[in-house]
Amino acid sequence: MSQHPGLDLMHVEMGRQCSDALATLDAARPIAEQIAESIRRTKRLVLYAMGGSQHVNRIAEPLYRDLGIDTRAINASEVLMSPLPDGPRTAVIVSQSGESGEIVEFLRTPAGQEERFGLTLESGSTLAKNVKAFIAAAGGTEHAFAATRSIILTVAMHGAVLEALGAPQDQLRAALATAPASIEAVDEALAGSDAYIFSGRHSMAGVAESAALSLMELARVPTIGFEGGQFRHGPFEVLRPGLAVLLLRSAACDAPGVAQLAKTSVEGGCNVVLFDASGGTAIDGCTHVELPVGAGLGAAVSMLLALQNFNIAVARRLIPQGIGSPRFTTKVTA
Question: Which of 202, 279, 292, 305 could form a disulfide with 180 if both were Cys (CB 3.0 to 4.6 A apart)?
Fold first, then answer.
């Protein structure tokens, strides 16, 4: 019997995540058009979620804003305590299970003028039953505790909506059809690290947050994900030898701000890795992971797929048994 049954389940999910995501992009078109029509009419979009789904919302949030849509991504738990004022807007509620406690409670609140739609893996869920329409990702339930396939599928569901709004997702499709970048050099460079910071800007900020959560779940080490600007404002005081800093750079507006973060982190004695989809030059002192040139969801998926393997590699070094099996939490948090 495997010492890591949770990890075995993860590998099954990872083995089909890209094909399921490509299928989702195509199958989601009719509902994505409905959601896009609502967004165009209300001109306001709120993305609600919890946990890993919220980090994917943070990946997509700036891409909706780039289309001129007034968009915010917000934790469902926050809105339960401080509801948004009623008004005409489109809401996209995201939950892989469709049964997260905060999501179920939020769905009990009056919609008012809010037009509610869902993104989920579960077509029979409470979420699916309580919205105007929903996109159900291909392939059904994710059985592993730690999210891998569900993260990639949620990116694909947002991709379908963005495409319906006029933002082609050719780079996303290409990323889903490309093998993940090798992480052997990264694993070697960070083998002596005892804490990890992930940082990115624009869509890459959500990738950083998602990767940090994944590493905490799998390797049970101190980890945090920062938006790149926020990383500069105080957190630099934590820089030291033994700290791993993983920087994410795409070929979009986020690229110019990464070099200074890297330079300061290197000067602070950190082990620094750059996951780079910008097509730019390597940065002195950093381990460089070259990814296909891209931006938006394409770059996000390239990084997420590579980081899945990196996070597993860290966990294998640190956890003698039980990788991917929770000790204190459950798959669906009621």
Answer: 305
Q: Is there a contact between 17 and 152 (Cβ–Cβ < 8 Å)? A: yes
CA 111 to CA 180: how far, in whole Å? Answer: 41
Q: Tell me which residues of the chain have a pLDDT lower than 50.
A: none
Q: How many domains does the chain have?
A: 2
- Characterize the bridge pairing of strands 114-120 and 70-75: unpaired
Q: Has residue 116 been placed in a domain?
A: yes
Give the whole-angstrom CA distance, residue 212 versus residue 151.
13
Those residues whose C-beta lies under 8 Å from the C-beta of residue 212, and which sit 6 or more positions away, are 196, 197, 198, 223, 224, 225
- E-assigned strand segments in the chain: 44-49, 70-75, 89-94, 114-120, 133-136, 195-200, 223-227, 243-249, 271-276, 286-290
Terminal CA-to-CA distance of the chain, rounded, Å?
31
Same domain, 68 and 216: no
pTM (predicted TM-score): 0.97
Q: Are residues 207 and 240 in the same domain?
A: yes
Q: Are residues 160 and 282 in the same domain?
A: no
- Phi then psi for residue 110, to 5 deg, are -60, 140
How many residues does this entry show for the chain?
Answer: 334
Q: Which domain holds residue 46?
A: 5-168
